[in-house]
Hints:
This protein has 14 helices and 19 strands.
Amino acid sequence: MPGTREAAIARATTLFDSGTFRATLQELVAIPSTSQEEAHRPDLDRYLDGALRAWLERLGFAVTVHQNPRPALGPILTATRHEGDGLPTVITYGHGDTVRGLEEQWSEGLSPWTITERDGKWYGRGVVDNKGQHALNLAALEAVLAERGGKLGFNLKLVIETAEERGSGGLREFVAANTDLLAADALIGSDGPRVDPEVPTIKCGTRGTFHFDLVVNLRPGGVHSGHWGGLTRDPAIILAHALGAIMDRNGKILVRDWLPKGGLPPAVKTALAGCPLGGAGEAATIDEGWGEPGLTPAEKIYGWNSFIVLAMVAGKPDGPVNAVAPNARAHCQIRYTVDTDPATFAPSLRKHLDAAGFPEVAIENAAVRMPASRTDPVNPWVGFAADSIARTLNRRPQVVPNASGGLPGDVFVDHLGVPLLWIPHSYNGCKQHGPDEHAIPAILREGIAMMAGLWWDLGEGNAPRLT
């Protein structure tokens, strides 16, 4: 008897309910594959060439692990399943590296490299960013292959990198050099959070990240605070006022040239109409009145730009002395959408600071770390995936123009010309990048079901094709 969609989804949820998926994820989490610590460089190889290779080859993929074009960074895995020249081809993406474990900062009884269940959550480094998400998609694929007797009905390519937490260094060069190998009709990947824990989500791109330092450097060294305080300029005070000239007390960006011309684009506003936003848990709060006036919370992070001071220092905070510091520095970030040009950010800021009376505040190390990307939310691939998810879960997903965070989708758009569909299996309060990173099993269970349904539907012959 030929398999059925319902049976494929049932196989996937059984993998989850039986503990099989959790056991697989535990094996992946146990590998401390942090790309931010050189001592763990061998673990990046172990994750790709050991754990993932064996699983993917069992699923019928041809697997290759490539050296990163930037030798100091971690390797890149590609895997392909080719079933026919006339079939649609999907590329999927994930990253096997994590941020630092931060072992000493986790709550008592929790460890970054072991999955621990507590209060209905799975704790462990990478359970959502990103091991749990790409592993879940592969487990769903495994269920579909089993139900279809070893066939998918479409071609699938996979890219797993190990330098995403270092800005995806080398990925652009790798994709540019391997366009034939990676050519596809669409990218379907999973990373980041849903708009709300209860709301399945499709994100059609990501905001970009632009970084720079603001520096006030006044003298070769510190001077006695008693003899000079009140007489000589304090770089920390000047820097604080310069930051106040960039953003007001309530989080409104005052460098208006940084923002989309004409305000929120109508297409973005339409896409975000009624979009919920929630589920931060203990991680943070949505503070009413913070940010751009007149925008909803969803519009602020999915359709607008934000300015953040990531770090700031003057003197030596862990060992202060009675001196007026010689300098002060703040490392800043702009999260931006495709509706603004990052090439204008530094010149606009220079003009703004000069006009506000801060010529001594220097702008250093200004650069894009990760470019913004966006696929039109009305793209046929988005509609296809949304219909599939709705059929599986009996409710439609929320489609947003782009995620609030950053991912290297621009690399695949620029070199492969594919539409982007990010289907996340996490939520805003998951504490990724910090201690106590965790996943909500109910979200993962929904994720494995809807991905099994989507993989099944891709093999039914109705998927859109590139024209």
